[in-house]
Design brief:
mainly alpha, elongated, 4 helices
């Protein structure tokens, strides 16, 4: 069981690190490549997607770091929820900005809900941390 927990912990750290790197690249692309090409409201939406991606990338890494010390499933629920939230919230906002495909905006609240679930699960995991 400990091996599975460590493997999953590493997965959250790797996923968070990749999401963080992609978030930095997306932010740089937005600042240097999209500023003159997107309408102001779409640029604001794009920046919001980047911001939430970066915040939750750090949360994913935190879930991975806590996993070996927090027994139970809560920290893994947090990691999965953060990753799902990044994909649905930020991913659908990116898609909306570039395509204006309206159905994508209907998935954004599901991603936001996943992020909230992630934070609640992380709090539950925090309560179970072994010293």
């Amino acid at each position: 069981m400990l091996g599975v927990n460590l493997m999953t912990a590493n997965l959250w750290i790797v996923a968070g690190s990749i999401c963080g790197a992609l978030g930095v690249m997306a932010g740089a692309f937005g600042a240097h490549g999209l500023e003159s090409r997107l309408a102001a409201d779409l640029l604001v939406t794009y920046e919001k997607a980047v911001r939430y991606q970066l915040i939750h990338a750090v949360a994913l890494v935190l879930a991975g770091l806590l996993a070996p010390r927090a027994p139970g499933a809560a920290v893994h629920v947090a990691g999965a929820a953060f990753l799902a939230g990044i994909l649905l919230f930020s991913g659908c906002l990116y898609g909306w900005v570039f395509t204006q495909f309206r159905p994508l905006v209907h998935l954004v609240p599901i991603g936001g809900t996943a992020m909230v679930i992630g934070w609640i699960a992380l709090a539950v995991a925090g309560l179970s941390i072994r010293s």
